[in-house]
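RECORD TYPE: inverse folding
INPUT: structure tokens
STRUCTURE:
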């Protein structure tokens, strides 16, 4: 009687181990996150500003930032047509497709948070923090791959 119990337990454990091993092998592997940090390096020029679906590129209130340069050292420089407006460090959260800009002159101001989407030579930035920028999309076109 005891030998039947031991044999039954042995068979159950063996079946459980087999089933567990089979399912573990069939689990799909997750794709590694895209390497946005290397893809964003370069010089970018503003080509379009959208408020929802409405193109507001020509409006004065659209944005003052006409150019963004992102370097391999995770530094950024933002400028308009005439002068530098801001500079500092940036970092990317690849899994959340977010880029953070930390201004040198910002003091205790937290980094600005932007959704980022890259397609071909376009970078689309969408504000994730500023209430006044919700729904705005800033579309930049790469003008150079060089990042100091």
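DESIGNED SEQUENCE:
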């Amino acid at each position: 009687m005891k030998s039947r119990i031991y044999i039954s337990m042995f068979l159950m454990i063996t079946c459980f181990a087999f089933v567990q091993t089979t399912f573990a092998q069939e689990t799909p592997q997750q794709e590694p996150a895209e390497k946005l940090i290397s893809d964003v390096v370069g010089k970018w020029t503003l080509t379009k500003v959208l408020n929802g679906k409405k193109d507001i590129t020509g409006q004065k209130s659209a944005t003052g930032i006409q150019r963004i340069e992102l370097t391999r050292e995770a530094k950024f420089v933002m400028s308009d047509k005439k002068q530098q407006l801001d500079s500092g460090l940036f970092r990317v959260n690849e899994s959340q497709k977010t880029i953070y800009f930390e201004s040198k002159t910002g003091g205790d101001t937290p980094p600005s948070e932007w959704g980022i989407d890259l397609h071909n030579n376009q970078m689309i930035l969408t504000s994730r923090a500023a209430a006044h920028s919700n729904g705005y999309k800033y579309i930049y076109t790469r003008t150079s791959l060089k990042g100091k």
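NOTES: The chain has a mean pLDDT of 79.
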